[in-house]
Structures are given as C-alpha cells and as structure tokens.
TrEMBL record:
A GO BP entry: potassium ion transmembrane transport
Organism listed in the record: Thamnophis sirtalis
Subcellular location: Cell membrane
Gene Ontology CC, one term: plasma membrane
SMART domains found in the cross-reference section: LRR_TYP, LRRNT
InterPro entries linked: Leu-rich_rpt, Leu-rich_rpt_typical-subtyp, LRR_dom_sf, LRR_TM_domain-containing, LRRNT
SUPFAM superfamilies attached to this UniProt entry: L domain-like
Entry's transmembrane regions: 356-386
Residue ranges of the region described as Disordered: 320-346
Protein name: Leucine-rich repeat and transmembrane domain-containing protein 1
PROSITE patterns xref list: LRR
Length: 415
C-alpha cells in the first residue's frame, strides 16, 4: 500500500517472523480500520498522535498476524511484541508521552537507568523519584533536543565529565537529592544555553574554580544542603548573569577563606541579586552568625600589608601553577585561637554600599567645615575693619589734644 498525498506510513518488521505491520496515517479524517489480507493498520490522525492509542491498534495488527502464523506452526516470542511496540511508538512502556508538549514523564517508576528508546523530538524529560545510579555520555544521545531534564530524587553518585555533552539545547537541569560528591569543571562546558542549575541536597564538599567556559547564561544556581565549607570567588565571578543563588544548609568556615565570598555577596545583593543567608558553622565564636553581619574588623588579619606585597604575589602565583590543593576541614578547628588566613594578591574591591554612605558623610562634613571657615573669615575681616577704624579715631583724637595743649603754654607766655 502506497501512502497518498498528506499521508505518512510507518512499516516495522516483526522480529523472527518475517511478517510486517504497517501504520498509515493521513491528516484528513480520523477513521481506523484493520486490513484482513495484508495485516495493515490504517489510521487517520492529526500530527499530535496519541502514542498509546497507536500502540493498541498496532497490538491488534500483531495479534491478527500471530493468529495466522500460529496455524502454520511458527513460534513467536512475547518479548518480540514488547520490543516492537516500544520501537514503533518510541515511548517506553513505563513512561507517558505527551506529543503536544513534547514531554516524556517517567516519574515514580522504579527505573534503574534512563530509558534508551525515547522520542527524538523530546524537549522535557522527567525522571524524578526513580533509582537511577549511573549516567554516561551515551545516556542522552537520542534526545539531543532536550531543554528540561529532571533527575531529582535518584541515586546518582557520580557524573562523568561528558555526561551532558550531547545536550546543546538544555536550559534547566535538576539534580536535587542525589549522592553527588564532586562536580568536574568541564561538566557543564557543553551547555551554552543552561539557565537554571539545581545541585541542592547532595554530598558536594567542594566546587571547582569554574563550572565551564560556556556557563555565562546561568541565572539560577542552588547549592543548598550540601557539605560546602568555602566557595572560590572566581567561580561566582564567572557567572555574570546570575540573578539568584542559594547557600542554605552548608558548613561554612567563616574565616579568611570565605572573605572573598562576603565581598562578592555584598556587591551581588547591592546590584539586585537574590540570595539566602550564609550561616557560619566554624570557628566556634562565629557559629550561627550570618556571614554578611560579621564586622570587617574581625577580618583584619586577612589583608596583606605593604611589606608583604611581593611575598603574597609569589605565593598566589605559585599556588595557581602547582596542582590544585584543597584544605582539609580539620585545619580550622573551633578551639584554635589563631585564624589561618590564606593571603591573596587580589586587591579588595570597593564596597559600593559603604562607599556611597562614606561619600555622603564626607560631603556633609566638608560642607560644614567650609561654612565654618567662611564664617570665621567674615568675622576676622569685620573685626579687622572695626579695630583699624577704632585705632584711626584714637590716633586722630590724640593728635588734636596734643596740639591744643601746646597752644595754651604759648598763649600764657605772651600774656
């Protein structure tokens, strides 16, 4: 049977039998019929076909064909039926496929791995609340159009660096509530359109200096409820479009290691960013305090002095050239009386919020001082004029009196 105009035809061979089931669909009517002689299912449908209805019709075709070949003594395996239905419909048996929204819903199915046969045009894949443990580069090879991937509430413990390399269009990635311990710095390099990344409720104890060279479009990053003690400021600065970041539920060391985070957070919030609180865990005297509310004076030992500039620069450079080393948490115990601060050559950025207040106060003080100086100058000038005038009058009166006294003796002598 040849498909006519505006028709599509799908033909699949039934494994190990030599038989065929053909699905022919048009875009005009909605009638379905089963051809007796050719075992052909002819169904008229619109573009958004109901995969489950299609599977039902196809099963009828297969049943009819099986009944024919069984009379001839042929053997047919039930597994072949399952494979055929799965391949033709492109929707796993334990999942629901929604062609209109291009969504495949495989939630709460007890899956141990990501289904291999998925519709190629899938844009949203929901796999939460399963028992998926491992992912590989091949896992998402057949779903390269994915935009939303939900892998939350599974048992994933590790992510190979090239896990998501095929997902060039991915925008939202949810990895909440797994057992991930470390994130490779190349993990998200192949996701140039990624906007939201949720890594909350895992076992992550450290993060790389960058999440990749193509992650500048990330606007939301959630790191809640992990085992983080510090985070490199370079990582945060590599996300220029970040609008929301969540830190709650980690074990932050509020020493010099997070001072850069404190400075970055103040600028981020001042520019309209959204974040939750960073609550200190150690040292003991700062436990339970909000990092942003700890005074700068307590971080005085974190700033390098002028005599140490060359030494600090050399230490910072050698640290980057050598292999990456991460400090063990026990080095900063709560009973220690000395805070081990790693000095960095990077200059302290200007705190914009404090700078505005400082400039305003300075302007007011300078204005008052100028007014006082002006008043003093006016008063001094007035005093000088009055004094000069007074002295001038006294001098004139003195001369006049002296002249009068000289005249009197002279007149007396003449008399």
């Amino acid at each position: 049977m040849t498909p006519g105009l505006n028709e599509i035809q799908v033909t699949k061979r039934i494994p190990k039998t030599g038989g065929r089931c053909t699905y022919t669909g048009t875009l005009i009517t909605r009638r379905s019929e089963l051809s007796e002689e050719t075992s052909v299912v002819q169904t008229n449908f619109f573009i958004d076909v109901d995969y489950k209805a299609f599977a039902t019709i196809l099963a009828e075709c297969m049943k009819k064909y099986i009944s024919k070949i069984m009379h001839k003594g042929s053997l047919f395996f039930v597994s072949s039926i399952i494979i055929l239905v799965e391949v033709v419909t492109s929707c796993p048996l334990k999942c629901l496929c929604h062609p209109n929204s291009r969504t495949v819903d495989c939630r709460n199915q007890g899956l141990a791995k990501v289904p291999s046969h998925l519709p190629a045009e899938t844009q949203t894949l929901l796999l939460s609340n399963n028992d998926i443990r491992k992912l590989s580069r091949r896992t998402f090879r057949s779903t390269q159009t994915l935009k939303i991937l939900d892998l939350s509430n599974n048992s994933i413990s590790g992510l190979p660096p090239e896990t998501f390399i095929e997902l060039k269009h991915l925008q939202i990635l949810n990895l909440t509530n797994n057992f991930i311990e470390y994130v490779d710095n190349k993990m998200f390099s192949s996701l140039p359109r990624l906007r939201a990344l949720d890594l909350s409720s895992n076992n992550i104890s450290r993060l790389p200096r960058t999440l990749g060279n193509k992650t500048e479009n990330i606007t939301l990053l959630s790191l809640k409820y992990n085992h983080l003690q510090e985070i490199d400021r370079l990582l945060l600065e590599s996300l220029p479009n970040l609008k929301m970041i969540l830190f709650k539920g980690n074990f932050w060391q509020c020493n010099c290691q997070v001072f850069g985070l404190k400075l970055w957070m103040e600028t981020f919030l001042y520019n309209g960013g959204i974040s939750d609180e960073i609550i200190c865990s150690i040292p003991e005297n700062r436990k339970g305090k909000d990092l942003l509310k700890i005074p700068y004076e307590l971080y005085g030992t974190c700033f390098p002095t002028a005599s140490q500039d060359h030494q600090v620069y050399w230490h910072h450079s050698s640290r980057h050239k050598g292999s990456a080393k991460h400090t063990h948490p026990s080095e900063y115990g709560g009973n220690s009386t000395h805070i081990n601060c790693e000095r960095k050559s990077k200059p302290r950025p200007v705190n914009l919020r404090h700078s505005v207040v400082t400039v305003a106060i300075t302007g007011v003080v300078c204005g008052i001082i100028c007014l006082m100086m002006l008043a003093a100058a006016v008063y001094g000038c007035a005093y000088a004029v009055i004094t000069a005038k007074y002295h001038q009058e006294n001098s004139y009166l003195g001369k006049e009196k002296g002249s009068h006294e000289e005249k009197e003796p002279f007149e007396n002598s003449l008399a």
